[in-house]
């Protein structure tokens, strides 16, 4: 049998081009393996070969999703592959979005199997798990050694056209596909058995997991802006120069509350970003680019708004867990409620 | 208490996925409310437009997730 051809997709970091300063790089391809591709190749059967690698910057991809996906699809097509493997992206949000979107586009246009890997809280997982097989990985590249064999295994099963078992058996994220199967026990017996396990406090696996809907209903609009008190909140890591609360550059364990009484403009001498997930040059030059204090002070002076709340809240949204994010949101929300704020502007990078 | 929130962000699909209701699309990931290519005055005007669009979102009643494209 002829050699099976694989193309591997990577971002600028794993593609060994550079960090955030290279996140704007446009898609390009090169022959053979790059970075984690070497380990991936070792896990694949002898007749399966990574013939090429396509690399694109995460920022470029996410700011130009359609153009980038088209360009990457044609670069992938150039290698005439039998399968595309993307990532793994772990908990890197923009990389996960890119891996998902690239897989989906390649599958639709080239009709070849595709597979990627990421942490289940990656926004790319939620967005693309219905379209693409996503191998469940840990939340950081420290888990690479475990992720690569799992990714390789599912890739081989897909390219060989094997029939896959359930998501739990195969280790991919559930795609919401239900299959009819014959079970040796009827439903009522299984339900009673599960109930008894539950009563005894034993663990059991539900046959019908409830979807997790994390939604709030839209709140009413502000009636009179000229009397409204507005507050600023950001996940972009804007902090007073020197980062007095030592908010971490990733996986932040806290948020900060900062007094901006009398502050009309954020300058490079007074504010900076603590965020480690994007190129900080522009925010450090002028933090108003992330947290628009200057504009809101002007609107306040013009009486277009009632006033700007004199404290703003900031954390770093970079690999921060959903559980922690919720905790911070509740705490910040509670404080802003006490302060009788009428509206909140939340900025993200 | 009924306090609306507007999310100013660049990658709108992420904002939709995580469940923001009022979304104001921004310029770029490292500078959502700015553009270093512009002169400081032009950049301030651009930022003011984005904030004004956010205020439009906060003063508009909605029933579902809504992306407020720049007018």
If you had to describe this structure to a student in words, what would you say it looks like?
The complex is a heterodimer of chains A (349) and B (71). With 349 residues, chain A is an alpha/beta fold. Chain A has two domains: 4-170, 3-Layer(aba) Sandwich (Rossmann fold); 225-347, no CATH class. Helix content of chain A is 33%, strand content 17%. Chain A has helices at residues 37-43, 58-63, 65-78, 93-110, 123-128, 144-159, 167-170, 187-199, 281-285, 293-301, 322-338, and strands spanning 4-11, 28-31, 48-56, 83-86, 114-118, 133-136, 229-234, 238-240, 256-259, 271-273, 307-308, 311-314, 343-347. In chain A, the strands form three sheets. Chain A has a six-stranded mixed sheet, sandwiched between helices. In chain A, helix 1 (37-43) packs across helix 6 (144-159) and helix 3 packs across helix 4. The radius of gyration of chain A is 24 Å and the shape is globular. With 71 residues, chain B is of the alpha/beta class. Chain B has two helices and three strands; from the N terminus they run βαβαβ. A three-stranded parallel sheet of chain B has the order 1-2-3, with helices on both faces. Chain B is globular, with a radius of gyration of 13 Å. The model of chain B has no long low-confidence stretch (mean pLDDT 96). Chains A and B meet through helix 2, helix 4, helix 5, helix 9 and helix 10 of A and strand 1, helix 1 and helix 2 of B. Strand 13 (343-347) of chain A pairs parallel with strand 1 (5-9) of chain B.
Condensed summary:
The complex is a heterodimer of chains A (349) and B (71). With 349 residues, chain A is of the alpha/beta class. Chain A is built from eleven helices and 13 strands.
